[in-house]
Design goal:
heterodimer; A: 164 residues; 8 helices; 0% strand; B: 26 residues; mainly alpha; 1 helix
Chain lengths: 164, 26
């Protein structure tokens, strides 16, 4: 069963990289089914399936479905105590809610991402969070906060030498 | 409004470009 799950995962990832997002989701749903088998029960594999399903639905234009899968990813990453994955799930949720034009919720998740990036000392992640937060605050017309995060983004970009 | 929208899309666009090459595997 473990090998079968891995094979489904590899097929899903290959279809995804080929741009066949619908086929990718079918394989990643198989991964989830195998991971959920009571005699098997692999939370890490289940978590990976949810992130991959979230990603594929972005390119299928189903941002609402992506948000649900990313929330499951977030929940499992917390159970598995994997902070890097937790940060990534928050970042994905922030971007997904931006696509859904729900900027308040986007800010909520980008702030969560920012906190974890700071905890982990991830300056690149922190810079991206500030960039995203600046944009989201502009969308809400909150220019004071937008400026605050744009300044922070500039400071971090200079520090890490990101001229772009 | 249009300018705001363009700025907004920028950081999400960058995320989506990275995402297209990102697979979560063992």
């Amino acid at each position: 069963r473990a090998a079968q799950g891995r094979a489904y995962g590899n097929l899903g990832n290959t279809q995804y990289l080929l741009g066949n997002f619908s086929k990718a989701t079918a394989f990643h749903k198989e991964v989830r089914s195998v991971a959920l088998l009571p005699e098997f029960g692999d939370r890490a594999a289940e978590r990976r399936a949810y992130s991959n399903l979230g990603n594929a639905h972005i390119f299928l234009g189903r941002f609402d479905i992506s948000a649900e899968y990313y929330k499951k990813t977030l929940q499992l990453s917390r159970q598995l105590k994997d902070q890097a994955v937790e940060a990534q799930a928050c970042y994905s949720l922030g971007n997904t809610y931006t696509l859904l034009q729900d900027y308040e919720r986007a800010i909520e998740y980008h702030l969560k991402h920012l906190l974890i990036a700071q905890e982990l000392g991830d300056r690149v992640g922190e810079g991206r969070a500030c960039w995203s937060l600046g944009n989201a605050y502009v969308s809400l017309g909150n220019h004071d906060q937008a400026l605050r995060f744009a300044r922070k983004h500039l400071e971090i970009s200079q520090e890490i030498g990101d001229r772009n | 409004v249009e300018r705001t929208h363009l700025i907004q899309v920028d950081s999400v666009q960058r995320w989506m470009e990275d995402l297209k090459l990102m697979t979560d595997c063992e």
